[in-house]
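Shipment paperwork, digital attachment
Item: protein structure file
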Amino acid sequence: MKGYGYLVSILSVLLLAVPSLKGAKDSPIMAACLVLGMAASIVGMGIRWVADLKQKAKVSEARSAARGSQSQAQEQRQAA
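Attachment content:
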């Protein structure tokens, strides 16, 4: 679900840039700043999304490891 949120945020950055680009068309410095700001925002959202995916993978891995240790403990109790 977070992936969709990031896509909506990217779309909003692009939509907000349309009127801003029209206003900055006469100043190359302002246009460059606007484009660089848009790019930085989109890259930042991508980085957060990748970090979220990595965190989910670590949580899933930890849960799997915890289940494995619980199963081993139960087997040891039953064997004793």
